[in-house]
Structure formats: C-alpha cells, structure tokens
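User
Here is a favour to ask of a fellow structure person. I am asking you to supply a protein in sequence and structure-token form. Please set it down just below, with no commentary around it:

Assistant
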Amino acid sequence: MNIFIAILGLGLLVLVHEAGHFFTARAVGMSPRRFYIGFPPAVVKVKRQGIEYGIGAIPLGGYVKIPGMHRPAPSDLDTFFGPARDEAPEVHAPIEHVKRKLDEGDMEGARAELSKLEEALGRVELSRVARNGAQKGLAELSDGLGSDAYWRQRTWKKVSVIFAGPGTNLLFAIILFATLFVIGSGGYRLGFSMDTNAPIVHTVRSDHPAAAIGLRPGDRIVAINGQIVQEVADVPALIQKSDGGPVRLTVRRNGETVRLEPVRPRREARLSPPRAAWESVRLTGVITKEIGASLSRLVRGNRKEVSSPVGIVEGSSEALNQGAQTYLWVLGLLSLSLALLNLLPLLPLDGGHIAFSIVEGVRGRAVGREVYERVSAIGIAVVLLLFFIGLSNDIGNLGG
C-alpha cells in the first residue's frame, strides 16, 4: 500500500508540473489542445472551447499539448506524408509545394498550400496507416503554422509558459514546507540542523541545548538514547520520542565515537504563518544549494547521490512508515528536486527550452529544427545516463 501511495505522490508532482504549463499558456493567450489527468490514451474525454480535457488510461501525472513547440520544417512532410505519397503519387506535387514554402520561410504561403494538400488527400484512396499518418501531419502542421503556435510567440511568453512547470513545483514545495512548519512545529528541539542526505550536523544554534553539550558541525549522529540512527528522519523522531526527557547523543567525530552528556530538549513554540513562510523559503534555499553541490560532486565522479524512480519510490515508502508528516517532507523535497532538475539547460528539459527561447529572442528568428534535434540527442543521452546511474545505485542498495 505504501508503494502505491508513493507512486501516486510522484504522479501528483507531475500533474502539478503540467498544470503550471497549461494554465500559464492560457493566461498568456496560447491555446493548449489537450489537458489530461494521467497519460493518453483517454478513458474519458470532453472538448470545451477547442481544448480536449480527459482522463488518461495511465493514471500517473498529467499531459499537456501546446501547439507548435517547434517551427515546422520541410522534413516533417516526408515523415507524415511519405506513406501517402508512395500510395498516391498525385499528392507528390502538393507536398512539394508546402515544403518549398517552408524552406523559403513563407509561413502564410505554407498554410495556403497545406489547405490544397488536404483537398488532394481527400480525393485519393489510402490505406488506414497512410491515412492516419496524413491526418496527424495535417493537424501538427496546422498547429505549427497557426498564429497561436508556441514558436511564434514573443520571448517572454515562451519563457513564462515553460518556466511555469518547474515554477509550480517550486511553489508547491514552499507551500508544503510552510504548512508543515505550522502544523509540525511546537515539538522538542535541541537546536541543530543536518545535511539533507545523511545525519551529519550542519549548523548548531549557540542559544540551544545542542551547543551546551558541545555538539559541533560535522558530527555524525550515530545513536540517540542508545537507539541507532540510520537516516536523517530518525533524528527528529527519536528526539520527539523522549517527550521532553533527557536526550543522550552519540556521535562520530574525527574517526572517534563521542558520547555527549544528556540534555533536555527545548519545547519550541508553534510558528506563525508568516514565520513559517519565511522558514520555508530559507529551507528551500538551503536544499537548493545542497542539490547544486551534489550535482557538482557528480561531475567530479561521485555518483552515489543519484537515484532513479525506483529508489525514490522506495524512499517515499519508507518515509510513510515513519508517519504522514515525514512523507510530506519527502514529497516537498521531491517537488523541489523535480523543479531544479527540469531547469537544467538541456533539451528536452524545460531549462533547455528556456535557453533556446532566449537565444531565439536575441537572434530575432527561430533556431533550425536540425539544431534542436542535435542538442536534444545530447540532452536525452545525459538524462538517460543519469537514469542508469541512479538505477544502478538503487539496485545496489536493494541488494544490501
């Protein structure tokens, strides 16, 4: 059951991401063609004001179709209409007319020729495969040549629509963290913070019990009141378990085991919403810095911090075992990680689309499709490499 909930949580984050693209596109005057909860094919769908809303058969995440993400290219005609041309040579000339207009950069002329091609296709007999390919080609090219096509929009609109996906994930994380600070505060604290990946002390507040017993940044907490600490989430749970009674920390410091004197934790007052919002933003900044540092360590060859969806689901499932609040902290961390990953300047990630939109705005014209395809091939290779590194780490962890 925990694994199922963990998968649904990931799906929710993807849905939030896609909803950001969808509603921002509508707000700036673009017309998305589809918005699905889940992924196609559709189980249920309805069309309203030219937009197809549906529930996908794959119940994970969401799907948004924004028309004309790329400038139509002459090679698109070969991809979509090749089978139709082979079966009906009489459509060869209309296809070539559209290709020539695209090659000349005459988009209005290409639209006119596309209408003639549609008429020519309606007069010939085609197999189901050729007909389906031609119909898809007509729809895609019509979208790409339309005035509301993504590639034809002003730079600020394109950047806004693409940034809205990771931006919504970022906002979701901040709101979730703030909510948890409000409902989860008021517990017992010793006054120190830890790294996000291991129970290693990051900072110690001088006016709190942790400083009084000599806890230092860099100490690795190995036990609390004799109970072994295996991960970051164990530390606050064991401190709360003391219910205000004495807490004895055992730490590793410079290769030696050090047992600190017992101390009573301080009961914190509940945070007000404004204070919780500020603490949430501050925490988001700390985590962002740590994620950036982990990417730097990855470039230098430390690949142990990378995880795949397998490890993410497993970690989320373990967090659920420790309670709903622990899981929600993890969900917020995942939402933030999804936002930052998507902002990497690699196609087909959102950051890559933002970078190309800015380049196109500076150049004053669209980048050629072949450039997009070559850069996308590099980006996909990098993403796949990260996936397989994460998967190998997760398999190794599952195997002990």
The chain has a mean pLDDT of 86. The radius of gyration is 27 Å.
